[in-house]
């Protein structure tokens, strides 16, 4: 049965939810209740409560996204999620379900984070470092430049329209890629979608990272750059983020973080481009608005003196 007031949204998925729960021991008595969790740019998420009061999150997979190159094969994020849960960085996994494809995770009670709060920013930096130094080896490598190329090619095949000045900006993106000189042997396990919606602060003050759809081994500064741009951190806050992460202020590492902020925005731009071209698959997001905002953010960032300085620092 459903406890969601938005009956129309739930009814579309109720059969799949019931079938999924029937395959999970302890949840298969037909008495669980659930409610749809709004958002979720790739999949559909449900907060589930068992007849005994146990809480969980059920994520039903949207396999169409991997066919477009947006997400890797489902086994990759599913297994990465299991690993992150085992290491206490993500939510522990209750079950992976094959039909309908999905994953069930322990519900983590917690509060949203304010990354601009100095104390919280330090905690986020230290948690990111613990992820990167965990010793995990995720099931794929993640190069944001290569990923964006694949996704944008798919978007163009779907008829997506890119901004008129995209070709010129692409030249700058290529310069950034060349300057950063990514080397897979130096990659560490990375979340690759670290912003406040995917972070929870628990009652003991610890931070957990959730949603490993884009996870993979990558350059450690990518997660930092993504946090910086997605959370709208100012230069002083980015200084604090990198100093807290590395234990010292290093101008070159700070510059790499700045360049990875542009790389993160460009990758996100590619995701919205393909999502807009196939918006009927998950149309509860304002893809047009997000794509426009991300593009404007890229244009603003690469026009600043700080960007040019960062590029020069990394190249030297």
UniProtKB/TrEMBL annotation:
Residues 37-249 form the Aminoglycoside phosphotransferase domain. InterPro entries: Aminoglycoside_PTrfase, Kinase-like_dom_sf. This is Phosphotransferase.
